[in-house]
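Worked example 2:
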Amino acid sequence: MKRLVLPLLVAVLGSVTVVSAAPAAPATNNAAAMLSQGNSFRDNGRMTEAVWAYRQAAKAGSAEGALNAGKMLCDDALKSRGRQRILDLSEGVADLFQAATNRLPQACAELSGVLRNGIGVNKNLTAAYAWMLLAAKKDNSFAPQLDQLVVQMNPDDVQQAQVLADQYARGRWPTDLVRPVDNGDQRFEIKGITVGGREKMVILNRVTFTEGDTQDVAPEKHSPQSAAVPVTITCKEIGPDYVLVSVAGETHLKLLSSASLID
């Protein structure tokens, strides 16, 4: 299940930028065969192979394949720690999003749970309600979960969630829910990490960060033709041997290792 770089979850905040999703490809015999193979692998405890097969089914047009892969990776992420948790969540939520945008009610409900519980993302009850409302409109068995959410929200948030759900129903999906994760970046190097004290700290190039800090950093490596122009970094998460950061103006998050940078 260790595959580089697929999106990490970012909660839907404030206004939503929307685009039209491409129509789902029709399911093929290959999709059905790979879905069946994934089920067989899963039933026999071969989870890595199961995720691979489900992803092949998803590529052939199976929303159920994407749903199964996403659920397995998110479940794995809850059991793992550190770098692997970040990568599993990144990939798993992306798979759930693929299935949800292909109108699969269970996938919409799973995505709602991710946002409701803050699994790898900031909690966002408004977005969680919108996805669950979409699920409930397709499958009334999700109505009780919708009721559980609404009692935690104020009327304005519910109204906003209904607007979002209407946008989703028309195929106008959020573009900021999933972000790719690059495993390493040669511009940045971890010089030291402290996680045992009262506050986690990391020295990135020559700048010290705590979680949540945003500062300018001069790249460690640059071409002879260009100066080391500083870039703005936000520190998302610090672990014992890694740091997760975002770079202003870039869509991909960066997962850096203190042992060695992974290209």
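Residues 194 and 201 are 5 Å apart (CA to CA). Confidence is low (pLDDT under 50) at residues 1-27.
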